[in-house]
Amino acid sequence: MKLAVAVCAMLALAECLVQIPLEKVKTARDSLEEQGLWEEYRVKYPYNPMAKFDQSLMVTGEQMTNDADLAYYGVISIGTPPQSFKVVFDSGSSNLWVPSVYCSSAACNNHDKFVPSASSTFRNNGQALSIRYGTGSMTGFLGYDTVTIAGAAVLNQIFGLSQSEAPFMQYMKADGILGLAYPRLSASGATPVFDNMMKQGLVTQDMFSVYLSKNSAQGSVVTFGGVDPNHYYGSISWIPLSNELYWQITVDSVTINGQVVACNGGCQAIVDTGTSLIVGPNSDIASINSAVGATSSNGDFVVNCNSIYQMPAVVFHISGQEFTIPASAYVRQSQYYGCRTGIGNGGSDLWILGDVFIRQYYSIFSRAQNMVGLAMAR
Length: 378
Fold this sequence. Notes:
The two termini are 21 Å apart. The strands form four sheets. The chain has a six-stranded mixed β-barrel. Strands 13-14-17-26-18-25 form a six-stranded mixed sheet. By secondary structure, the chain is mainly β. Residues 1-14 and 56-63 have low confidence and may be disordered. The protein is built from seven helices and 28 strands. Strand 23 (331-334) and strand 24 (338-341) form a beta hairpin.
């Protein structure tokens, strides 16, 4: 793992950027496929990509789900002296939580656990925290401590300490989640990490940006406080948010070979680093996959691995701009299950533009302007 660093980039003005590298690792799905357990797992713990966006359940806490295809994690530390944790930097949720020493669930036993008594700066909040999953839940309590990200110390940060976790978490590489959405999404009213970074003057601009490398396990990075021109080329397209809760924008249509195949008349989409696929309404997803030559099989859309470079691109039309996702980007290959598209069913009118999209487009999340910026990723 490369060390996280704070760097100063020469842009229009010099600005200090807090950058934390992300490591692309073997997914839970990859590990389960290797063990021949994937079919059993997927039936027992069905994936519901819309679980964390179901506002009807929001009163019960932040919604999470078992995305077995998540691959990107970064390391932060909590406490004094620091205790390290692998976390998903999730623009689709707002809470920070990690396993605690008080958790005896199988999911906690193979992850790093926070030990409050080992930190001289820890304070117990005393408030309970419950985070519902698509197939279970995480329960725990809230505390305060110093959270360090790439050398930037966020003081008195509130975070969750798990006492029980849903069984599917034991297959995931990350220990916990660091949410980067808006404060009013946060369970138990906990102030998100990035809000405290802004309040404490740890960033020069109220924005963060995400670069996901296309092929390499290294090179992916989250940049707090601005943009890094080394990770994109061309101009940035700035898109206003349609809902300042998630990073939600309006998509005008989705086309293939110039023909509208989905999102006819416009639709709503969330740019989400915490979802691995592009997800949309079932009928639209079926239309896209049919147009690219994919067939449905056990919840996946399967394609011939030898046909990838003959398959058409999928184009998202957003704010008058075209954002093209070539087949080489939306097809996933597995040595155990062949090739399948990374465009899946969501069972909702809402779309999620997850890692499949973000690998193609450097994504900038501006709290100052309430906009998402998209530029061609290098």
